[in-house]
Amino acid sequence: MAGIIIREAFFPGRAPIEAYGNGGFRFADMSHRGSLLCLPSGIHGWEPADANALAESDFERVFAEAGAVELLLVGCGPDLRRLPPALTGSLKAAGIACESMSTGAAVRTYNVLLAEERAVAAALIAVD
Known about the structure:
With about 130 residues, this protein is α+β, with helices and mostly antiparallel strands.
């Protein structure tokens, strides 16, 4: 008997976030526990759980899709946090504007911009 296979969380499409809280998110009639990275290529499970520890390496997938993303919304948990200047500089150099805000505000803004078919991405840290 084979053991449990743990696969990377991935939804191949764009979908609005239906709900957030309790350490996760609901979208496309599914739920995900943990943080999310919503990109044009799909919605990925995302490791970061602390906005104070975000690094450029956490955004490799965003940089890989730079041509398809004009704006990145970063949901920093329950409160607004400033992103490291080196990170925002690297995103700007890649042609991606970046806005940090609370996760709730980022979810709401992402949903509006997604409905407007804008080139938006979101990096959302889960909140309880």
